[in-house]
């Protein structure tokens, strides 16, 4: 049997490549198959693995609110992995969930102000999913009363070291979130911590 001409093989490969270009992979498939971390880096946070697994379940169950949330969060995580600040811990991922929930709560007010209760309800259903993942993450949440106690203790430590002036704001924030610091790995918003630090000092 005669050998297949090289030109025929090349034409076949070209047709296959064109077909692949006409059928791009969906966002969900990219999120599921994307390698967020190289083999040389630390493994992805457990919560991220759960979100990717739940995306498959949400697709099968046709759970629209959960599917919308998971696609959005995984897309944001993928985008972050291409920057200098990738999401490497559950704490960072929970912060992303909280931030997205806050943004969507603002949207709820806007929709209600415009008389679009249908869109407000859609946002609320997604907020519920976001809060479910944040609260079930295992990341410790710090209440305001506990946070104030931590700030007072840190202020006392700095005073003992001779740092008593108001410019100690930056030093306090650095001390609070440093490795081994009282707020390392805790579910707190830095903006809220900064506000309370200003009150304490």
From TrEMBL:
Gene3D superfamilies linked: Uncharacterised protein YqeY/AIM41 PF09424, N-terminal domain
What is the protein name given in its UniProt record?
Answer: Altered inheritance of mitochondria protein 41
- Coiled-coil blocks: none
Please list where the region (Disordered) is annotated.
1-25
Q: Major place of localization?
A: mitochondrion
Question: Does the entry feature the keyword Electron transport, yes or no?
Answer: no
SUPFAM superfamilies listed in its UniProt record: GatB/YqeY motif (SSF89095)
InterPro entries with a match to the protein in the record: Asn/Gln_tRNA_amidoTrase-B-like (IPR003789), YqeY/Aim41 (IPR019004), YqeY/Aim41_N (IPR042184)
- KW Mitochondrion (keyword) present: yes
* Location in the cell: Mitochondrion
The molecular function GO annotations come to: carbon-nitrogen ligase activity, with glutamine as amido-N-donor
Question: Which residue stretches does the UniProt record annotate as biased composition, category Polar residues?
Answer: 16-25
Q: Which domain of life is it from?
A: Eukaryota
List the GO terms this entry assigns under cellular component, sorted alphabetically. mitochondrion
């Amino acid at each position: 049997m005669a050998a297949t001409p090289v030109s025929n093989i090349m034409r076949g490969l070209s047709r296959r490549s064109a077909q692949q270009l006409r059928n791009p992979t969906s966002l969900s498939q990219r999120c599921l198959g994307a390698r967020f971390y190289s083999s040389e880096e630390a493994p992805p946070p457990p919560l991220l693995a759960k979100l990717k697994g739940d995306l498959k379940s949400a697709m099968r169950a046709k759970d629209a609110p959960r599917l919308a949330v998971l696609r959005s969060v995984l897309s944001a995580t993928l985008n972050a992995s291409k920057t200098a600040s990738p999401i490497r811990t559950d704490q960072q991922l929970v912060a992303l969930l909280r931030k997205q929930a806050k943004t969507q709560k603002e949207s709820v007010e806007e929709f209600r102000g415009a008389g679009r209760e249908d869109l407000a309800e859609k946002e609320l259903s997604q907020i519920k999913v976001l809060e479910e993942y944040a609260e079930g993450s295992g990341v410790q949440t710090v209440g305001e009363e506990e946070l104030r106690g931590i700030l007072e203790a840190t202020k006392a430590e700095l005073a003992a070291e001779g740092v008593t002036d108001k410019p100690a704001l930056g030093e306090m924030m650095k001390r609070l979130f440093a490795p081994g610091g009282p707020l390392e790995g805790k579910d707190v918003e830095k903006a809220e911590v900064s506000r309370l630090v200003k009150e304490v000092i």
